[in-house]
């Protein structure tokens, strides 16, 4: 069982971003959010988190005071303070005095990708230390920069299938995936030529991972995010240890090219004992269903986007009605859940 974390911050945008970054770190099982000291104390009493991350700039000096109260009410909790960049030593020193184990300075405003990277870099060692302190050390990671790591965990590749409403939905998932994501990711988004290149460039500007349009013959490594080019099918050949992109101009399937079905069927022919992780998101029709059926003997694990968070609940619905979905996840939680499943930090069905 991994760590439970409570994030307390008055800024709703920063609270969500920080929560998603923490949820994607190794060894983290659950993240709850609170906007005030009063809400934080209620949640802490109900959930007994292992770690609390507290905004030290809460109104009326409530931040440092909350640190002391959380530590008094549950001495086992690890408290990390988040201080404003120009706050001076006062709040941080007071938080330390009242029991904070570490103080993290809030990143300066700037590009989303940089802010997420800074938060991940600053919090990763603190969360790892908290895991050891609570007897819940995270599993060993892949190490090394993205693009040079071998896949880790139970899966060797991740496939995201998406159509109508996809660019917005991908923009709320891909930028929140952690820099040490353990597998290559291949995205099939139904778009015409040239539009997929612009999509990849837009995601790359905001993501911790390197996002690009797929190139024929390239070898994929853990942490790569490849978007299938519009108007071309993308398959994966080679081996699970050295997967290779294969592009071709075969006929459209179900009226679309690229097709998730074509990609998924190609994965069924790749050797290797590890599984394929799949995500079926918002979109019209049922692309992905036939491919998942072909892949079924290899025991793929499939996440679907929940109906309420889809622009069009077609592709996920088809997979769920066929009994091929393992779990449905709201869009706002999809990045964190995807990272946890890919790393193998949560139990999965064995059948």
- Count of β-strands: 14
Shape: elongated
Largest sheet: 7 strands, parallel
Q: Compute the CA-based radius of gyration.
A: 21 Å
Main sheet strand line-up: 8-9-7-6-12-13-14
Query: What value does the average pLDDT take?
Result: 88
Oligomeric form: single chain
H and E order: EHEHEHEHEHEHEHEEEEHEHEHEH
Question: How far is the N terminus from the C terminus?
Answer: 21 Å
Proportion of residues in extended strands: 15-25%
> How many separate helices?
11
Protein structure class: alpha/beta
Low-confidence stretches: 139-148
Fraction of residues in helix: 25-40%
Explain what this protein looks like in three dimensions.
With 351 residues, the chain is of the alpha/beta class. The chain is built from eleven helices and 14 strands. The strands form three sheets. Strands 8-9-7-6-12-13-14 form a seven-stranded parallel beta sheet, sandwiched between helices. A five-stranded parallel beta sheet has the order 2-1-3-4-5, with helices on both faces. A two-stranded antiparallel sheet has the order 10-11. Helix 3 links the parallel strand 3 and strand 4. Helix 1 packs parallel to helix 11, helix 2 packs parallel to helix 3 and helix 3 packs parallel to helix 4.
What is the fold's blueprint, element by element?
Layout: E1 3-8, H1 12-23, E2 28-34, H2 37-47, E3 51-55, H3 62-73, E4 78-83, H4 89-97, E5 102-105, H5 112-133, E6 155-162, H6 166-171, E7 185-189, H7 195-206, E8 210-213, E9 224-227, E10 233-238, E11 243-248, H8 260-268, E12 275-280, H9 289-295, E13 301-305, H10 315-321, E14 327-329, H11 331-343
Helix pairs in contact: 1-5, 1-11, 2-3, 3-4, 8-9
């Amino acid at each position: 069982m991994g760590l439970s974390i409570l994030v307390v911050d008055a800024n709703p945008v920063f609270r969500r971003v920080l929560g998603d970054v923490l949820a994607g770190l190794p060894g983290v099982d659950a993240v709850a959010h609170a906007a005030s000291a009063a809400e934080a104390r209620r949640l802490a009493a109900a959930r007994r988190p292992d770690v609390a991350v507290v905004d030290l700039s809460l109104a009326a000096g409530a931040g440092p005071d909350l640190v002391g109260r959380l530590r008094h009410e549950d001495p086992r909790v690890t408290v990390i303070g988040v201080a404003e960049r120009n706050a001076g030593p006062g709040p941080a020193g007071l938080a330390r005095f009242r029991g904070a184990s570490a103080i993290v300075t809030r990143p300066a405003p700037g590009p989303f990708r940089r802010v997420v990277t800074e938060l991940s870099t600053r919090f990763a060692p603190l969360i790892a230390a908290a895991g050891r302190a609570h007897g819940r050390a995270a599993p060993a990671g892949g190490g090394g920069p993205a693009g040079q790591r071998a896949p880790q965990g139970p899966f060797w590749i991740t496939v995201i299938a998406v159509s109508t409403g996809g660019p917005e939905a991908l923009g709320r998932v891909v930028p929140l995936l952690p820099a040490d994501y353990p597998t290559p990711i291949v995205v099939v988004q139904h778009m015409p030529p040239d539009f997929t290149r612009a999509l990849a460039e837009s995601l790359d500007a905001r993501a911790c991972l390197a996002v690009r349009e797929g190139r024929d013959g390239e070898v994929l490594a853990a942490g790569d995010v490849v978007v299938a080019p519009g108007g071309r099918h993308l398959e994966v050949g080679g081996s699970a240890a050295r997967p290779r992109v294969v592009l071709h101009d075969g006929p459209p399937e179900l009226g679309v090219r690229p097709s998730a079905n074509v990609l998924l069927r190609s994965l069924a022919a790749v050797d290797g004992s590890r599984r394929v992780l799949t995500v079926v998101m918002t979109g019209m029709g049922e692309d992905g269903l036939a491919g998942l059926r072909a892949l079924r003997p290899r025991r793929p694990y499939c996440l679907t986007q929940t109906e309420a968070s889809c622009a069009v609940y077609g592709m996920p619905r088809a997979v769920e009605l066929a009994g091929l979905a393992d779990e449905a996840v709201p869009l706002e939680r999809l990045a964190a859940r995807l990272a946890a499943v890919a790393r193998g930090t949560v139990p999965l069905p064995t059948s």
